[in-house]
Amino acid sequence: MQDKITKLFKAIADPTRRDIFHALIVASTALSISQISNHFEMSRQGVTKHIKILEDADLISINSIGRERYCNAKPKALETLSKWLKFYEQFWDSKLENLGTYLDNNSSS
Amino acid sequence: MKDVIKKEVLFNHSIEKVWEAITKADEISTWFIKADFKAEKGYEYVFTSEPNEKGCTTISGVVKKADPYVLIYTWIVADTKIETTVSWQLEPTGSGTKLVLAHSGISNYEGETAIAMFESFNGGWDNCINGLTNYLKEVINAG
After folding, report:
1. Which of A31, A32, A63, A84 is 20–30 Å from B53 (CA)?
2. Which one of B1, B80, B83 makes the best mutation probe of the A interface by having the most chain A beta carbons within 10 Å?
């Protein structure tokens, strides 16, 4: 069984899926599979395959209305990753600055 | 998007000096975090932050590799059970030393666990780091 975050990385590793996800974020409204396939000039089957992986990673939700399926972006899944990166980017920048200062001070004394 | 944080820094100091700064407990305690640390494979180290009213946490882990000039240890914040990996690699350059630091491993965990970890950070760890940074600034200014 794959961990959620592993699925997340797999989902965003593919440039087409990133584009689909991005298009849904920009649209900030649900887009149907037909709309997505028109936009990307891709077959419905192709889009369906990609959105299934995005749905598995909890990056989008899919709702059926009548005979059409609509996709919504769920950017919350990316928060975990961006929070971790943001926190430790800052943490290590600050610590390595300390290390540099420490080394400089120690050599002059 | 990757799950690795990578930092490259150049120091105008010899590789031995930088190696000592990142492997000796008393030196780590000065510029980084109060440390019980030995650069020996298998050593279970503990980093302890200065206590404050927020209740600071510890970082612990196991040294995986400590051969000059590569240091690798696991990194577990308090009781989160989330094991990430920190590696330090040194290379001599013309006038000093290049440090490559890498911190990886968050992709091994489920979203909820990772989110819980950040909530604990917001509660305490963040404050400990700020406190320590300020402390070091004071020491440097005083000296």
Report:
1. A84
2. B1
DSSP letters for A21-68: HHHHHHH-S-EEHHHHHHHHT--HHHHHHHHHHHHHTTSEEEEEETTE
Gap between the Cα atoms of B47 and B61, Å rounded: 9
Nearest C-alpha in A relative to B32: A95
Half-sphere exposure of A48 (CA within 13 A, CB side): 6
Cis omega (within 30 of 0) on the bond before B69?
yes
* Each residue's pLDDT tens digit, B64-90: 999 999 999 999 877 666 788 999 999
Tell me the CA end-to-end span of chain A in Å, nearest whole number: 56
ipTM of the complex, rounded to two decimals: 0.72
Which residues lie below 8 Å from residue A16, measured CB to CB, with a gap of 6+? A40, A42, A50
- Mean pLDDT of the region B35-44: 96
